């Protein structure tokens, strides 16, 4: 090595590593193809690497298992869903901010003038009494719901401020918060609020909402050995991915236009239930 090449090498040290949820862009970038998987036959596609029943990997061209690292694909979901593994964390984070102005809520203070013991200060008065809770439906899918105290006076248009994130909907004390609305909220959280949230250990990430589902390489499926030849087994996780694909196709084929609020809710919960079951089987939930 000559002196010129030595002088261009600088000393350095790693001062920290930050882990986060994969973004939608990262999931697509990690995929071997820009085209999403849309049919169950593609779930053991030769493009996803070895092992295969016969033939070679159509991505790197090798037929030797030790030389193929495997290649990811992805499924594009027809509607955003909550990441089943991170709903509780998302709920805790969103509970810290005012959903109207997206600023951090202030601490509770003592109110003496009107006899109220204490009150949570929100930046916007009309949002001060709104709480967020995690609800599970009959299919086992969890979603977030906004709630006003049942003793409070229900004002006309009390949920109208949410229209900026998706839908002007709701005339009751509770209202579902759709994944597509949370996606918009996460995108719009200002830098100052993000900084304050990080001080409390929360980091807004678009990975809280799934719209692309990674499909793992063939090498991560369970193989069986028959007559000395390695072939793909009937992996239960592949069966669950087939159900996800089928449900996605049911949603697409049932639409005759843009989905309304109720359709968004029903589609998201049904698809999320399938994805949750897949993640449980896969062992990544």
Task: Characterize the structure shown.
This is DNA-directed RNA polymerase. One of its GO terms (cellular component) is DNA-directed RNA polymerase complex. Residues 43-279 form the RNA polymerase Rpb1 domain. Keywords: DNA-directed RNA polymerase, Nucleotidyltransferase, Transcription, Transferase. The protein is of the alpha+beta class and 285 residues long. The protein has two domains: 19-84 and 208-282, Irregular (DNA Excision Repair, Uvrb, Chain A); 87-202, no CATH class. Helix content is 28%, strand content 16%. The protein is built from seven helices and nine strands, in the order ααβαβββββααβββαα. Strands 4-5-6 form a three-stranded antiparallel sheet. The longest helix is centred in the last third of the chain and has 22 residues, at 261-282. It is globular. The model is unreliable at 115-120 (pLDDT under 50).
Number of domains: 2
Overall pLDDT level: 86
Q: In one word, what is the shape?
A: globular
CATH domain class of the largest domain: Few Secondary Structures
- Low-confidence parts: 115-120
Under the CATH scheme, the architecture of the largest domain is Irregular
The overall strand count is 9
Quickly list its features:
285 residues, alpha+beta, 2 domains, 9 strands, two-stranded antiparallel sheet, 3-stranded antiparallel sheet, transcription, nucleotidyltransferase, transferase, DNA Excision Repair, Uvrb, Chain A
How would you sum up this structure in a few lines?
The model is unreliable at 115-120 (pLDDT under 50).
């Amino acid at each position: 090595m000559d002196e010129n090449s030595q002088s261009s090498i600088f000393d350095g040290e790693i001062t920290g590593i930050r882990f986060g949820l994969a973004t939608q862009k990262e999931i697509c970038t990690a995929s071997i193809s820009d085209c999403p998987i849309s049919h169950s036959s593609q779930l053991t596609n030769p493009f996803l690497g070895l092992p295969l029943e016969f033939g070679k990997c159509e991505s790197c061209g090798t037929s030797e298992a030790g030389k193929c690292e495997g290649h990811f694909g992805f499924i594009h979901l027809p509607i955003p869903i909550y990441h089943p593994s991170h709903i509780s964390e998302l709920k805790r984070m969103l509970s810290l901010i005012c959903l109207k102005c997206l600023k951090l809520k202030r601490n509770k203070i003592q109110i003496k003038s009107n006899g109220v013991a204490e009150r949570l200060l929100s930046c916007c008065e009309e949002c001060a009494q709104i709480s967020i809770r995690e609800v599970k439906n009959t299919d086992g899918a969890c979603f977030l719901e906004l709630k006003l105290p049942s003793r409070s006076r229900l004002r006309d248009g009390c949920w109208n401020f949410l229209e900026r994130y998706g839908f002007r909907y709701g005339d009751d004390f509770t209202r579902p918060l759709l994944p597509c609305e949370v996606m918009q909220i996460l995108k719009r959280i200002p830098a100052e609020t993000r900084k304050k949230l990080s001080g409390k250990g929360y980091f807004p990430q678009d990975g809280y909402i799934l719209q692309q589902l990674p499909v793992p390489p063939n090498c991560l499926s369970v193989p069986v050995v028959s007559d000395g030849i390695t072939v793909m087994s009937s992996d239960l996780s592949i069966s669950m991915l087939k159900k996800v694909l089928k449900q996605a196709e049911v949603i697409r084929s049932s639409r005759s236009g843009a989905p309304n609020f109720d359709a968004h809710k029903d589609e998201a919960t049904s698809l999320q239930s399938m994805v949750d079951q897949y993640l449980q089987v896969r062992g990544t939930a």
